[in-house]
Amino acid sequence: MRNLLTQSLKQLGDTSSIIHLQTIHGGCINQAYYVQTEKREYFIKANEKVSPDFFKKEVTGLRILQQSRTVNVPEIFGEFYFEQEQAAMLLMEWIQGDKSEKTEVWLGHQLALLHQTTEKAFGLDEDNYLGSLPQINGWDTNWVSFYRDKRLKVQLELGIQRKRITGQRLKKLEKLMANLSQWLPKNPSPSLIHGDLWSGNWLVGPHGKPYLIDPAVYYAHHEIELAFTELYGGFSERLYQAYQNIQPLPLDYQDRKPLYQLYYLLVHLNLFGEGYGQSVDQILHRYV
Ligand code: ADP
Hints:
Helix content is 41%, strand content 20%. The chain is α+β, with helices and mostly antiparallel strands. It has 2 domains: 2-93, Phosphorylase Kinase, domain 1 (2-Layer Sandwich), CATH 3.30.200; 103-287, Aminoglycoside 3'-phosphotransferase, Chain: A, domain 2, CATH 3.90.1200. Strand 4 and strand 5 (87-92) form a beta hairpin. It is globular, with a radius of gyration of 20 Å. The termini are far apart. The site of adenosine-5'-diphosphate has 18 residues, from strand 3. It comes from Thermoflavimicrobium dichotomicum.
């Protein structure tokens, strides 16, 4: 790892000595490090089991967020893949700071502006990853078919393969997918979303400034992002108020919220196992 790190730093033009290297805990997929050279500080992610495009997709997502000029993301220094070792490495700005009273208001405000970045269709030019699972994109002008085919169906097929979606669960999910247009709006505006916004995927930088990390971006009905933030919690009321001051949520958002949380629960069921099964079944039971 140290050897690959030195090679990466060299490619970035930093040949100064490494003064400090520390493992950072908290992520669920990659190894993470704080590195300080004589020249500067870095946050580094490394992975020895990913496909060569894994960090490329993360960089693309962060760049798309950055180009929207609505939210803050860490500066990307470089991304490298070492063929022989089959290892990937991503080097970016080290973000550190303390929350201020304004931090979450700031985040709510910026998130609303991000969601006001729109496109003509749902999806993205390229596929990416949600955690370590591939997330299929492409474009579709119809939100219902996008959510059904590119989100729920992909997880349904994976769940069948991994034997996590069987029996009644499978039957109900198929029925829900066939009747999706009953609950989802036909033509919402396609909004740019972070795509994986749980409380571990944002950081506080200097002066309480919020930063988004680890995205799974695409253009979607923006309510899906809010629904996911509410699934595992960790975001304060202040954030939602700031969000709604710019982009109010309609009352019937509450009726759709579990349907949007379902995608994330299916992903987690497929990734981490039956611990998520009961929550999936509860949602299926509510609609079918
Ligand atoms: P993973 O891709 O494995 O989920 P994360 O991107 O979530 O990894 O990062 C792992 C840990 O490192 C988290 O605790 C996160 O808070 C922290 N972290 C991520 N990016 C930075 C950064 N640019 N600066 C400082 N800490 C970071």
